C-alpha cells in the first residue's frame, strides 16, 4: 500500500506514516529499506507492508520502501534568526527553502553565508516555501 511519511523522530529512529484513507502506521528505521539515502523525509511517498498492531495499538510497518529517491541539493544559508530558530536557504538555482533548527545537523553552526547540503521536503501547503531537511555543512 502507498503512504506518506507524516513524522520522523531522528533520535528515536522511528516515525509515523499516513495512508490516503487517513490510517496511521508506525515504523522503525530498521524497516526502512532504502538505507543508502537520507533518513525518511516528512511528506515523501513510500510503499509499505504492514503487520500486526504495535504495543500501542497502531499498525506497524514490516517494510517501508521509497517510491522516488530524494535529491541532494546544495545552497547557502541566506537568513537565520537564532532566537526564533528558523531561516532560509538559497540553492544553486536561486530557489529558497525554509530552514528550521530541528532539521540541522547537531554539530553544525548555523549562520548566513554557510554552504550547506540538504534534501527538500515535500511542499504541504500552497504558497509556502519547501522545507529543507537533513541539513549538513558543505565541505
Structural overview:
The protein has 139 residues and is an all-beta fold. Helices cover 0% and strands 50% of the residues. The protein has no helices and ten strands. Strands 3-2-1-4-5 form a five-stranded antiparallel β-sheet, with no helix packed on it. A five-stranded antiparallel β-sheet has the order 8-7-6-9-10, with no helix packed on it. Strand 6 and strand 7 form a beta hairpin. The chain starts with a strand and ends with a strand. The mean pLDDT is 88.
Salient structural properties:
139 residues, mainly beta, five-stranded antiparallel sheet, elongated
Computed over alpha carbons, the radius of gyration is 16 Å
> Percent range for helical residues?
under 10%
Strand order of the largest sheet: 3-2-1-4-5
Tell me, briefly, the overall form: elongated
- Category by helix and strand content: mainly beta
What is the mean predicted local confidence, pLDDT? Answer: 88
Q: Biggest sheet: strands, sense, closure?
A: 5 strands, antiparallel
- What percentage of the residues does DSSP assign to strands (E)? over 45%
Distinct helical segment count: 0
Give the terminus-to-terminus CA distance: 39 Å
**Poorly predicted regions:** none
SSE order in H/E notation? EEEEEEEEEE
Number of strands: 10
